[in-house]
Write a structure and sequence with these properties.
globular, about 280 residues, about 15% strand, alpha/beta, binds iron/sulfur cluster, Uracil-DNA Glycosylase, subunit E
Length: about 280
């Protein structure tokens, strides 16, 4: 992606915000800009109140933490590649700020501990998309932690033999659906502008959808995961491969061999050497 000047960045983000408003997301709160310096060590305070005690977190590989006390929306980044000169970092943090202050989905806002923006390399060629944060993700503010996260890490690092830190990972919705239910189509639609904006900034060449919720929502189709697997789809210029969600694989270990076939398809598309 072309490096953006500060003026261009402001224009791009204002366009994102206009897109959000045009798509019906009217009630998110505009959080103040966070310090985009590479090293941010002190807590940042902000005046914008949140309707619910909430904390938001953008975990983008390469940068140190920023945290704000509840009830204000919080963006904390543990590791961002690049620094104040990296336009993608700045753009992602601005989107994460909007996510942190979003109150679009009343039930999710009422039950979330914090928003879960995404984690990984802003320059990643490959983005993994799941359905939504679970209980542990909600507590830690990071997608794919716990047992599902460990399995995803194994799929990436042992299966594909690329470092997890080199990919970007996010979800269809950025707030935990209570009881780990599936996000509704309305919630997915409400959060879609944030997903599209994130993907516009990261500009991946490849996307791997984890589970049917991620696949059908990203691709805008009603098909079953079985119908979507084994085929290379597209999202803009990115090639999209669909496979099982790691949580499903933990419950159904016999499906791992099919998931491995899906990863091999992805690796072939990416030009990575296939194992086994
Ligand atoms: S899921 Fe997305 S749209 Fe809904 S409240 Fe959370 S951040 Fe906002």
């Amino acid at each position: 992606m072309e490096k953006l000047s500060k003026t261009s960045l402001n224009y791009v983000l204002s366009e994102y915000l206009n897109d959000l408003k045009r798509s019906g997301v009217q009630d998110f709160q505009r959080a103040p800009r966070v310090n985009t310096d590479r090293r941010v060590s002190s807590a940042a305070s902000q005046q914008t109140p949140s309707p619910q005690p909430t904390r938001g977190r953008a975990t983008i590989s390469g940068e140190s933490s920023v945290s704000r006390a509840v009830p204000s929306p919080t963006v904390s980044s543990s590791a961002i590649v690049g620094g104040s000169g990296d336009s993608r970092v700045a753009e992602l943090r601005l989107i994460a700020d909007q996510v942190a202050g979003c109150s679009r989905c009343a039930e999710l806002v009422a039950n979330r501990t914090q928003t879960v923006f995404g984690v990984g390399d802003p320059h990643a060629e490959l983005v993994f998309i799941g359905e939504g944060p679970g209980a542990e993700e909600d507590l830690r503010g990071e997608p794919f932690v716990g047992r599902s996260g460990k399995l995803l890490t194994d799929m990436i690092e042992k299966g594909m033999r690329v470092p997890r830190s080199s990919v970007f990972i996010c979800n269809i919705v950025r707030c935990r659906p209570p009881g780990n239910r599936n996000p509704t189509s309305e919630e997915a639609a409400a959060c879609r502008p944030f997903l599209d904006a994130t993907l516009k900034v990261v500009a991946p060449k490849y996307i791997c959808c984890l589970g049917s919720i991620a696949a059908t929502n990203l691709l805008g189709v009603q098909s079953s995961l079985g119908q979507l697997r084994g085929v290379v789809h597209s999202y803009g210029d990115a090639k999209v491969v669909c496979t099982y969600h790691p949580a499903y694989l933990l419950r159904n270990p016999s499906a791992k061999k099919d998931a491995w076939l899906d990863l091999q398809l992805l690796m072939t598309e990416m030009g990575l050497p296939r194992q086994g």
